[in-house]
Design goal:
single chain; 8-stranded mixed β-sheet
Length: 619
């Protein structure tokens, strides 16, 4: 049986169901090209409000730059990037399908992904050779009576005391030491049993191209609840938030319990920090405190509030996650956003999508399909058709003409002659995905971790790091998936990403199993930054920790299309749906039936009254 990812399973299921269906319709109100997150949100809202929609993608998987793959899927994705488009239909053949006055526009097929580099850090040996290597390493384990630990240094049996009085204690210490040696040797075996072929054959991978976290009170959580799409998704609470302090990974004190439990903040600093965090939760109620600093740097305001440099590091780099030069008002908003999400679903403000962030585009696509949206993946799009007035009226796909009133597509794939003359804002996102055999900060239980690495210099930006294990359904047991994301500084170098990586993994070579580096170039378009009223452009993915910009862009695009309609209203639960109104009409009594019922009730009351009188007379 071939290995199928969850996305591929849905695709195969859809292909089987479509095999017995009639041919693809040739007319829709809206056509959405691409199954990225923003396009999927728009398609779901269009279908939810009763419009006919065709959601089509040239790829054979959902998500585009938001997709998640297993390792075999990553290899296919890399091959697809290197392919040269050779199946284009000659323009002369396509023009035969046009009517008088219509024009063709060929899509821009340039990929937004570049500089893809895959690296392996394990041997592709068979199991027998690997076991031999492991046995050779375990033979070199030191004497069980002398074991080094990070916390206690070197443990040695006490020889200065009387051996007769301490036989039992000595035996116990030797037994404990032997157990520690067994545990360390088993961990060493576990680290060295992974081979390239074993990792490639593992099916339990969901590696995100664009990983994201959700603020517990952020716009994505609100949208999922509001639209009732949350029933299609599962999430895990991020269990710890770390920061890099003096070259070490340390916990970020954000809640009251964290503040008073941390060892890196003095007693006086704890009181100052708690007072300031309490103020940030409702800073709008006390404008007199910050109004004099609104346009001044946030750093100056923190100094004015008597926060020490130690506290300022935690607030700016790990809570607000902003630059020191940002104005005070924006810094307060970012701090409040973090604090307001604490305690809603866990001890940290973040949620992580089980099976990876690639599940979210699929959830919106599923809602679109439930409300009548038509899906077609892996179908080529030859061109876009415009009329004499330059209005978009349809597409050509596999020689089939499909008409529409409105067309939604990514701005980067839109034909250049259909864009406006304005220059789009471009940004480059640097990405690194790593598979490691041990957590960046080991603990007794598996942790779901977020780290915000501060900028290395004034021209640099933050690096967002997430680490998830088997509990989040992104990799097999005994392994962790590490994601690093940062915005490129624009100088063509990626040294700052490497610096962030080195700061959280100083001993990378002993933990690394596999890594993938690549860059994503994105452009920000206005939703109506096209030459026609019937063509709407999407943007992204942007560099952000959550989904605020993506959702705001999708909402604005939908209001540009349908200004009078609600954006993604709530979908009813299955038990709330009534198929037809026949039963409801039958249950509603007519006027004659109501009159007859009242007469029967009146007759029953009179009969009961007579019976009561008879009983009284008899008595």
């Amino acid at each position: 049986m071939s290995d199928l990812s969850y996305t591929q399973y849905l695709l195969k299921k859809q292909q089987i169901l479509m095999a017995g269906q009639p041919a693809l319709p040739t007319e829709f109100e809206v056509i959405v090209i691409g199954t990225g997150l923003e396009e999927s949100i728009v398609a779901a809202s269009v279908a939810r409000n009763g419009h006919s929609v065709l959601h089509i993608d040239t790829k054979d998987y959902y998500g585009e730059a938001w997709a998640a793959f297993n390792l075999k899927g990553i290899q296919e994705w890399k091959e697809d990037l290197s392919k040269v488009q050779s199946d284009e239909v000659p323009k002369e053949e396509l023009e035969k399908l046009l009517k008088e006055g219509e024009k063709l526009h060929i899509l821009d097929r340039n990929s937004s992904i570049s500089d893809v580099k895959e690296s392996w850090f394990v041997d592709d040996d068979n199991e027998e050779n690997q076991e031999i290597k492991t046995d050779e390493k375990t033979d070199a384990v030191p004497d069980p009576t002398e074991v080094k630990t990070e916390a206690e240094g070197t443990l040695k049996p006490e020889s200065t005391l009387d051996p007769e009085d301490n036989v039992e204690s000595k035996d116990e210490s030797v037994e404990v030491a032997e157990k520690q040696v067994e545990r360390s040797s088993s961990q060493e075996k576990k680290k060295n049993t992974w081979t390239k072929s074993q990792i490639m054959n593992e099916r339990m991978f969901n590696l995100d191209l664009t990983p994201r976290l959700l603020y517990s009170r952020g716009s994505m959580v609100d949208l999922l609840i509001q639209s009732n799409i949350s029933r299609y998704t599962e999430f895990k609470s991020v269990t710890r938030v770390l920061t890099v302090l003096n070259g070490m990974l340390e916990h970020v004190p954000s809640s009251r319990a964290d503040v008073f439990a941390t060892r890196h903040v003095s007693v006086v600093e704890k009181r100052i920090l708690m007072k300031y965090l309490t103020f940030c939760l409702s800073y709008q109620d006390n404008p007199e405190v910050f109004e004099a600093y609104q346009s001044r740097p946030y750093y100056d305001f923190l100094k004015h509030q008597k926060l020490t440099e130690n506290l300022i590091h935690f607030v700016i780099h790990s809570i607000a996650m902003v630059d020191k030069s940002i104005n005070t008002l924006d810094g307060l908003k970012a701090t409040q956003k973090f604090l307001a999400s604490l305690g809603r679903f866990g001890n940290t403000p973040f949620l992580y999508s089980s099976f990876g962030s690639g599940e979210l585009p699929q959830a919106f696509c599923r809602l679109c399909a439930v409300f009548g949206g038509t899906y077609y993946l892996g179908r080529s799009i030859d061109a876009i058709i415009t009329d004499a007035n330059d209005n978009c009226i349809g597409i050509l796909s596999n020689g089939l003409r499909i008409s529409c009133q409105k067309l939604v597509m990514r701005g980067q794939t839109c034909p250049p002659d259909l864009r406006s003359n304005g220059e789009a804002v471009e940004e480059v996102i640097e990405r690194r995905i790593c598979l490691i055999n041990e957590s960046i900060l080991p603990s007794e239980k598996e942790q779901l971790t977020f780290v915000s690495c501060p900028p290395a210099n004034a021209n640099d930006g933050f690096t967002f790091v997430t680490e998830a294990g088997h509990g989040a359904c992104v990799c097999p047991r005994g392994m962790y998936c590490l994601h690093l994301t940062k915005k490129s500084s624009g100088n063509g170098e990626s040294t700052s990403l490497q610096q962030s990586f080195d700061s959280i993994m100083p001993n990378a070579q002993s933990k690394l199993l596999w890594s993938l580096d690549f860059k994503v170039a994105t452009e920000t378009f206005s939703s109506i930054e096209a030459c026609q009223n019937s063509l709407y452009l999407t943007s992204g993915p942007h560099f952000e920790l959550d989904y605020d910009r993506t959702i705001a862009s999708a909402r604005q695009l939908y209001f540009d299309m349908y200004p009078e309609e609600p954006f993604l209203p709530r979908a009813p639960d299955p038990e709330e749906i009534i198929l037809g109104e026949t039963e409801a009409e039958e249950e509603k009594p007519t006027e004659e039936e109501e009159k007859h019922t009242k007469e029967e009730e009146k007759h029953t009351e009179e009969t009961s009254s007579i019976e009561n009188k008879k009983e009284i007379v008899h008595e």
